[in-house]
Write a structure and sequence with these properties.
- By secondary structure, the protein is an alpha/beta fold.
- It contains 13 helices and five strands.
- The protein has a five-stranded mixed β-sheet with strand order 2-1-3-5-4, with helices on both faces.
- A hairpin with a 3-residue loop joins β4 and β5.
- α1 runs antiparallel to α2, α2 runs antiparallel to α3 and α4 packs across α5.
- The chain is globular, with a radius of gyration of 20 Å.
Length: 281
Amino acid sequence: MKSTFITLALLTMMLFKANAQGLSTTAADYERQIVSLYVQKDMKTLDRLLSSYYNSGLYPEDVLMYNYNELQGMQDWGVIIMSSAESLIGKLILQRVLSEHCDKVLVCTETGGLDSLTCKRLDIPMPPSSWKPEEVYERTMKWVFKHVTDRNIYFPFTDSPLFKQFPVELKECIYNEGLTMRYSATPYDNITVKIRNLEERYLTDYLRLSLHPYSEKHDQRLYRKFTPGMLALNYSAIYLDMLPYYRKHRPDRTAWLQELYGACQTRYNRINMNSLFNIEQ
């Protein structure tokens, strides 16, 4: 463990030095070290590296805004359980560099899940250390459901495919609220919450704009499953799902929703995701 820590410290120092000297540093270099520092809980060095990564411009603005909206749709003091470090990094930048949504608790099963610091913050007992890797995500969820009683619990919409394997009684307690899903043992009107998120909480003007184009430097990220184009499709899915409701109950807002849907489709097409999905021309 000591040699691993020393190696991590040396690599991090080299990364800072390269950045200070204006040498080429890839997004993958940053993300590899960020995840390592987060697992080690070296938060002071982590904060410096997150700030350096953000200021480098290597982290895509679209992806950061998507992470912001995920947290924006949650209730205060909520907990979000994520399966991938890809969902974690943007939220760490928001919280620890930009001081946004610092009340939200981040739980990432790929980077240790319920570590001692997270359990202390949630005031819950530490889970057993005997969980098998393939069990960690579901067991982490159930542990949080059981012990966290004073916070709302959420999941990224991007994790929804993992829910297919869960028992029916568990899936029945998961409600879609837009970019996130919320666990609730008590039924509630999630349509109203979804409308609130779409109309009042999510910052979506950027979907109509051309930010810094997604380029080769962004493709050098270590975690790049969810590109801006893919995330634009997630917005599209929400808008398309809600259009029938709007046509029936909120006709005065239907044109607004259709315009946003069109903006997402345009954004998706502009980024050209055909190669990712291996779509034949």
